Request: fold
Amino acid sequence: MCAEDVEKLVNNRLRDLKIGGNFEDALRMEVDRANSSPFTAEIEQVALSKRFSTPSFTCFKGDSDPEIHLKHFKSLMILHKTEDALMCKVFAMTLREAAQDWFHTLPSGLISSFKELAYVFTKEYTSYRTIKKNPDHLLNLHKKSDQSLQDYIKRFKAERANIIGCDDKIGCSAFKRGLPTECELYRELTISPCQTLVEVFATAERYALGDDDQIAAKKADQAAEQASQENSKRRSQPQEGAPAVESYTNFTIPIHQILAQVKDMPWLKKPSPLKGNPTKKDTSRYCTFHEGHSHYTNDCFAWKRHLEDLVRDGHYTEFIAMGAIQQIKDCDVANNEPPRKKSYGSTQS
Reply:
């Protein structure tokens, strides 16, 4: 029985089973339908064999391609395809939720064969059918600029697998067309065209190995360059917790001698006391500025910074060379420093 015959038979049976009459008749028919089966009496009377083991099906809920579900069902029931009643009853067991509700709304005695059941099933869910791709779809595939040759091969194979009836001539032409014209594989397929798609893929796989090596080498070079830049940046910046490098004026005498000469001046500010336990400090190192043990006066950062501020205010310039004074002036101008209390070069202390 061809598809047209099945369609005609089912439509005629539906017309014969139309509900007619008054409300009471319609209500009685609905009750009868709830207690009846969409299958004919011949199918209902066939009992399932005790030796039959129901396969593990993926159930159909009414929201996917009906043809895919039919193919799935037929492949698992291939050993029983000649047993029409068994095919019908087992197929009904694969329906769930909305699809199960639909099945029980079918008129009583409508289905007399699995072909009829398959017809009404696909007709009901035809809007969920997947649009099949034709071989021309492959002509739209192109290798992207940032895509490796291996990835292009995989994508092409995956798309071709979804196309039924794609011959090698179209496949070979589409694969080559999707390659950049400057690609070495494109030139190879032009000079020595392959007769089958298997040969095209084999040739492409050889080129893909070289392509992968080039990509890996490029990534390695980029990683090495990035690491070199990060190392250079790390060397140019002070490490976390390390004191910043400071630049101090070069004096003509040691700074501890300067402190000895100016320690009684009114503009000299006393520093904060040294922190830490005095009993644990190195008593061999004494700082006159802090008046405590811990470090030498010449190594005291607090005295060095305070001395720089005093110099910029015009004090103690007699202890530095005129060239150094000019450098301080230039630095202040560059940093937009405000005017100092005294002009540089003053000999007052």
Observations:
- The longest helix spans residues 197-236.
- The longest strand covers residues 286-287.
